């Protein structure tokens, strides 16, 4: 149950003064029914439209419509099977991160995934986002796709991912064993090759079976070879290939042999696009591709006599249809869930006899309409919410400009909004001048030359940065986490990260990641043309964004030495604001 005692008291007081409804009804407190739990607790929203009496009236007089619940996919409890299920049940849903549960049943193992609801009819679940190890030397043996999915292959040596990708630039892959449970149709999008949508023939990507596939062109990106699509899946020792006459898409995962063909002519030539539309810096190495799998399972359909059945149910009984009230819109349409607990008669009884409790709505942060200011706001209103992707709207007001962001609700009291996830350009030669953090936020750093990001990072390994201008609207405290240096949480003093101001900060250690120098924390923010740094006696965290100068110190001793952890897989760091 959501807490917020003060809020509950406020609503109860308001409700008790709300016995009668005037003709206009304008000056009465109005409530929006959000949900009813197993004990008959009604969750009402204080900015609601209808007063209690009006709800009861509409229910008894049948002046309502029954409709699909509109929070499908927005919480673990209301996970959908796949993005295709979501598309069928909520055709208007935007592309974004939703909760899915491909094996159905209890939603204990549901997880968040990205849905493309626009391209080629929508309903596509993103299962893999990849980039290249050496895009600028495309035909060299050093070039390969990265990471690769956990499919079977003997010769690949790039990183294997089993992390669900949250966006098209979040380079991860869903556990391959789950792909088949999502569907068999697949969509491949890339910014260097044509987009195609394919159905299985004798060949199958999700079942790793060589043979024919039937593909159609979704977008012709290249000026060359218009209308050519691949027609076969073929395995090689290094990865799967989608063949036309010759390689068209080759998911080659060995960085010491072969190269990952992306040829719109299907001739195994370097005909991939050379322009890189998502890339702003000359030093960036990534081009973007993504692959989605479409669910084609049959779906259960809601009973057509939904409304009729609802009105028939006047007593509680095991065999009576039961409904869960989810929401009521501005026209008094009630959204009910079919696996509900209470029948309509009981809902009316509880409303009229006052046998209910009022509580906070439980879908805060789960849709654009119920965006929170930031993760701290969410933590205060829904203390039990897990870490994950939520809707936030730092400037408040109308939620037209709300967006999804990642919240850490556990570390150091929670309530942290992720604003920056970075990795390194040359981790293995950490102190070489070629090493820098990448990407960098849009803060001022006149000498930095790594890619600037203004894409909101949706996980700790989604290497992007929220527009720097928004950071200060979220808060002033910051948390830095890294897998190669200690975690620290800091309050502003005379210095500030979000204001880019040099001066003191008050930090505490959140986690000692290193064996060295226990308890040392930085004491100040310092400015540099390559990027800001935090200093103890010397550099502790240095966000050096220049690949021709300096190196990005991550020294738990704060002495500007190479004391960062070595040999770590996926080395990275994150800045959160609260
Ligand atoms: C319903 O009431 C029972 C008994 O008071 C309680 O144990 C349970 O947690 C309640 N369930 C919910 C969802 O509040
Ligand atoms: C990658 O290719 C090289 C060169 O052919 C080969 O020596 C190596 O064994 C391959 N890597 C793996 C993991 O098979
Ligand atoms: C409410 O009704 C009006 C007029 O029929 C309609 O234009 C509007 O879309 C409806 N709003 C909702 C949320 O269904």
From TrEMBL:
The keyword Translocase does not apply. It is found in: Secreted. Its main location: secreted. Pfam families: COLFI. Residues 1-25 form the signal peptide. This is Fibrinogen C-terminal domain-containing protein. Residues 74-127, 366-419 form the Fibrinogen C-terminal domain. Keywords: Collagen, Disulfide bond, Secreted, Signal. PANTHER family: INTELECTIN, INTELECTIN-1A-RELATED. The keyword ATP-binding does not apply. GO terms for molecular function: extracellular matrix structural constituent; oligosaccharide binding. It comes from Pocillopora damicornis (Cauliflower coral). GO terms for cellular component: collagen trimer; extracellular space.
């Amino acid at each position: 149950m959501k807490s917020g005692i003060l809020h509950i008291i406020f609503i109860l007081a308001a409700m008790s003064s709300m016995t009668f409804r005037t003709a206009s009804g304008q000056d009465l407190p109005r409530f929006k029914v959000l949900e009813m739990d197993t004990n008959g607790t009604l969750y009402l929203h204080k900015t609601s439209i209808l007063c209690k009496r009006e709800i009861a009236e509409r229910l008894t007089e049948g002046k309502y419509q029954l409709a699909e619940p509109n929070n499908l996919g927005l919480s673990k409890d209301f996970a959908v099977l796949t993005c295709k299920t979501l598309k069928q049940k909520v055709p208007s849903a935007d592309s974004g991160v939703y909760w899915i549960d491909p094996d159905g049943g209890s939603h204990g193992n549901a997880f968040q995934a990205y849905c493309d609801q626009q391209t080629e009819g929508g309903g596509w679940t993103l299962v893999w986002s990849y980039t290249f190890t050496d895009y600028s030397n495309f035909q060299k043996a050093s070039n390969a796709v990265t990471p690769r999915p956990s499919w079977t292959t003997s010769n690949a040596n790039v990183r294997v991912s089993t992390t669900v990708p949250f966006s098209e630039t979040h380079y991860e892959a869903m556990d391959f064993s789950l792909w088949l449970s999502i569907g068999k149709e697949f969509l491949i999008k890339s910014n260097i090759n044509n987009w195609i949508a394919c159905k299985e023939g004798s060949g199958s990507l999700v079942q790793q079976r060589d043979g024919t596939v039937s593909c159609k062109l979704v977008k012709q990106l290249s000026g060359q070879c218009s209308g050519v699509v691949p027609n076969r899946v073929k395995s090689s020792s290094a990865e799967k290939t989608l063949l036309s006459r010759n390689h068209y898409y080759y998911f080659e995962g060995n960085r010491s042999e072969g190269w990952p063909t992306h040829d719109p002519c299907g001739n195994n030539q370097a005909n991939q696009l050379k322009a890189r539309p998502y890339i702003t810096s000359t030093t960036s190495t990534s081009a973007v591709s993504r692959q989605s799998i479409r669910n084609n399972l049959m779906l259960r359909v809601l009973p057509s006599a939904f409304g009729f059945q609802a009105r028939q149910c006047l007593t509680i009984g095991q065999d009576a249809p039961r409904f869960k009230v989810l929401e009521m819109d501005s026209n008094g349409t009630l959204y009910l869930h079919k696996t509900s607990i209470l029948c309509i008669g009981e809902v009316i009884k509880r409303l009229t006899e006052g046998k209910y409790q009022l509580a906070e709505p439980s879908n805060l942060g789960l849709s654009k309409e119920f965006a929170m200011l930031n993760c701290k706001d969410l933590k205060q209103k829904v203390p039990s919410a897990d870490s994950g992707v939520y809707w936030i709207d730092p400037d408040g007001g109308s939620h037209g400009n709300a967006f999804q962001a990642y919240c850490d609700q556990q570390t150091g009291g929670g309530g942290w909004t992720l604003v920056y996830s970075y990795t390194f350009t040359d981790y293995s030669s950490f102190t070489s001048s070629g090493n820098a953090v990448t990407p960098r936020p849009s803060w001022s750093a006149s000498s930095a030359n790594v890619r600037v990001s203004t894409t909101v990072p949706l996980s700790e390994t989604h290497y992007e940065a929220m527009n720097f201008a928004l950071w200060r609207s979220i808060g002033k405290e910051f948390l830095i986490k890294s897998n190669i240096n200690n975690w620290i949480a800091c309050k502003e003093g005379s210095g500030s990260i979000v204001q880019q101001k040099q001066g003191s900060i008050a930090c505490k250690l959140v986690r000692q990641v290193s064996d060295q120098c226990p308890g040392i924390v930085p004491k100040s923010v310092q400015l540099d043309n390559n990027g800001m740094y935090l200093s103890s006696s010397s550099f502790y965290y240095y966000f050096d964004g220049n690949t021709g100068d300096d190196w990005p110190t991550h020294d738990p001793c704060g002495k500007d030495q190479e004391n960062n952890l070595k040999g770590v897989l996926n080395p990275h760091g994150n800045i959160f604001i609260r």
